[in-house]
Amino acid sequence: MDRNSIIGIILIVLTVIVFSIINQPSREELARQQAIRDSIQQARKSEMEKDTIQGTELTVPISNSSYLGDSAFTSSNLYGPFSKAHQKSGQLLRFRNKQLEITFNTRGAQIHEIRLLEYKNYNTTDTLSLFLPGSNIFSIPLSVNNHLIRTEDLTFDLASEENFADTVKIKFSLKTDSLKPVIDFEYLLPPGGYMLGFRITGLNLSHIVPDQPIDLEWKQTVLSQEKDVSNEKGKSTIFYMDISESISEMGTRSKEKEEVDYDLKWIGFSQQFFTTTLISDESLKRPITLLTNPSDENEKNWLRKYEAVIRLPFSGESRELFNAQIFAGPKNYKILKAYDLNLESQINLGWKAFRWINTLFIINIFQWLSSFNLNYGLIIFILTLIVKIALSPITYRMYVSSAKMRILKPDLDLLNEKFPNPEDALKKNQEMMALYRRAGVNPLAGCVPALLQMPLLFAMLSFFPSSIELRQQSFLWADDLSTYDAILTFGYIPLISSIYGNHVSLLAILMTASTILYTMMNNTNLGTGMQAQQMKIMMYIMPVFFLLFLNTQPAALCLYYLIANVISVLQTIVIREFIIDEAKLRARIEENKKRPETKKSKWQLRLEEIQKMQRQRSEELQKRQRRSRR
Questions:
Q1: With 60 as the cut, is the pLDDT of residue 497 above it?
Q2: Which of 65, 78, 454, 602 is the most buried (most CB within 10 A)?
Q3: Three state DSSP letters for 483-547
Q4: What is the structure's pLDDT at 45?
Q5: Rg (CA), the chain
């Protein structure tokens, strides 16, 4: 491994360290994670209904006494023509298709709960609840009798419930005390899939709230679904797309509020592996307000709260419509991509410069391998093997360059002895370039292939942590490849927990050991000087930095790098023993050194020109220093 390759690797390590520092949980977050996981299950149990449901049949309505209003006098004063709707109690209605189980509440005509039947929460046997039951609220604020009321506090009537071709259509109607319908909420549940139809109908709303803009408020509180609460919170935020298909996202670390002064196509309340996205058939009208609020250190029952305020396209007509769809499901690239709405942009697949590697190659290969129903550990092994075979030409060129530099090492050591002083560095570099030129060796030949592999490195850093296919998939001792494998877990330890974490990942340790082994096999190109010794030390320190970073990363990512390192070691042995004859390569280089110096390339001429300018500047600086001493 030559000096240029090492410099390239150092740049990669520094970038990884920055990633690790940014994403490292605080001491308070580490202390809260277990408490959050313990309390979430209890919060879910308090909301669960134990009814047995078949197909998409309507369940027996469940009275919710907590929704009973105040006295008739208070209600009539505050709620005006909606006093009866406020006093009426709500009912829970439940439907399901192949993927979803949805509970509606007539109080506010809300989607009370959505359960994903094909997914489970971490460390439980319950199907996954997409959000805290009762926290997903679509509400229209209305100014009545100089008081602001919200439809979430009013009980709708079940106007109709239809079932045709296994598609359920349910309509809730908000009526005045005189039984005049004012607002309808309609939902359409198809026989399969994660997309729901959603429509709001305004009926003579201008008679109730004249000359007022009508807004839709959407709120949702999400629970922790995964093992690593801190990591999950850092990957949960609001995404939104405007009508020109430009994607934006809000921050994840603190409470944020954004005022959007342009129309949007959709807004997504996104979690690490799941999302609830409101998609307008036309557009979500401005002005739009978005708010994301992570839980504080004392909160144990929820992970993050989302809010969005959208202007409805109502202008005072007798009948006005807002048509939309709601996607409530997994952030699976294949599923989201099929809707052709750029919903897959909510999946973190890396920077734009590297994202195409995942979308065009890695995901397609991964999904093809998944179609064989293999264990995902084996799928990662095959994927790694395919990647390494594809990169084998680059690996071969890197090894040839490394072999040439190893052959030239005695000559380079002689130059280091000939020019030991720092002020002779320019002359030494000129002699080295002349040596490379005579021997026909390009010193950058090993660095360029290493840099060409960097996009793949960063692509994998994003691919594995974002792959829902790996969620709760086990391999060997790792019970969930989408998060870290912990063979030992301990409490908070000052400094150690902040830098390393509060657990030990065996795959991260094995990956580090394989990196050290590979480094030992390829560190023979460095010289014997002080600088060379420093480079050797750095080469063995770098795996430690990788260990600190990968200890909290998904087991799948550590497994990929471990397998890649093992394959690299085997490739090195095969190339060294059976493909490249270093004796012949040495003879060819010695023969090249005896030949007359060939014509310099444009690059060499440019380099010499730069060196000449540096030498002149150095000489001028020395002259100025001598003059100043006089």
A1: yes
A2: 78
A3: CCCCCEECCCCCCHHHHCCCEECHHHHHHHHHHHHHHHHCCCCCCCCHHHHHHHHHHHHHHHHHH
A4: 45
A5: 32
